[in-house]
Structures are given as structure tokens and as C-alpha cells.
Amino acid sequence: MKIPDYYRQFQTQPAAKEEEQKKEVQQKTDQSAKGGLQQSQQNKKVEDKTKVFQANSFTINQLEDWEDKTVYTLTGPVTDGIQHNVIINIDREVPFENLIDYAEWQIRTLEEELKSCTLLKKGETKLDNGMEAYEAVFSWFPVEDVKIYQHQIYILVDSTAYKLTASFTKKTRQTLGPQVERMMLSFNPKAISK
Fold it and tell me: Domain 71-185: which CATH class?
């Protein structure tokens, strides 16, 4: 017996209702599982020992036994074929008790790593805020026929050391060098919270 089209909608409706009910049951099951997962994640958050890491434009809950090894780079103009920048490295818990020992260690390390490196100048200096600092100026050839001058300033506050590095060509050492040196000497370290 052939069923007119009009009546077919009533014939397939129970099957559609069953499908709808199955979807509802599946959604409730998924929500329950998701809720359990969220509850588990919330419990996990409570168990993790963290501290707030605050950067320039964000914060994150940093696991307690993780260490911040951020290297800051302030970029300037590309002039005379090189990208100028000031790089700031922070080393916490250094084994040095005085600034000169830390600076001399940094200088020796650089001389060993850069075989074509020549130390041009080293000595004590002061930051604009009056803090003691130490500086060194090197020249070296990263590639043949390209001589780079590198100016480093070292600062030690308690057991935290800071190293500021800027690189120049012979020409830009004269043109950009004085501005960059003034910028580096304006460095003002804050107390580090542990």
C-alpha cells in the first residue's frame, strides 16, 4: 500500500524523535564529561605551585620550579648594513660577590668564544642613577671584511647580574654610538622579587 506524501511526515516523526532524544542524551553525557574535565583542571590548578610572572604586556602563572631566562632586545635602525640593537641579559643567582669578578669572567668568556675578538677598552663606569658598572669594548670579524665593534656594560645587584650589549660598524660607532651609550647608561634595575 502506497502512503501519500502528506502522511509520510507522520510516519518518520517517531524516528526523528528518537534521534533528537539520542542527541540530547549525548549532549548531557558530553557536558558531564566536560564538567568533570574542568573540575579536574581546576583541582590541578590548586595543586600547582606557581608565582605570577609579569612581562611588559602580559602575566602568566609560572610554575614555581621554572626559571625566567628572558633576553630583551631593543631594536634600532638598520644602518651601514647591520641591525642595531641593545640586548639585555639577566642572570639570577650568579656565583660572583663583586662586579669586577663578574665582568672579568664575561670578558674572558667572550674572548674565548670569539677567536678574532680584540679587547679595545675595559674599566669601571657609572650608570646615570649613580650605580657602579663595568664596561668593555671589543672589535671582531663575524665574517671576512666586516668589522664589528661591541660595547658591553655589566651591572651586579646582590646576586643578579645584568649584561647590556650593543654592536656597531666603524661608521655607526661614531654616528649612533654616543646615543646608544647614553641609552645603556640610563639602565635602572629594579629589585627582583623571588
Answer: alpha beta
- Say how many residues make up the chain: 194
Which class for 105: exposed (0-12), middle (13-18), buried (19 or more C-beta within 10 A)? middle
Q: All 3 cell numbers of residue 137?
A: 669594548
Burial string for 130-162 (b: 16+ CB within 10 Å, else e) reads: ebebbbbbbbbeeeeeeebbbbbbbbbeeebbb
CB 166 within 8 A of CB 77: no
Residue ranges of the chain with pLDDT lower than 50?
6-10, 12-13, 45, 193-194
CB atoms within 10 A of CB 3: 9
| 26 CA to centre of own chain | 44
pTM of the model: 0.71
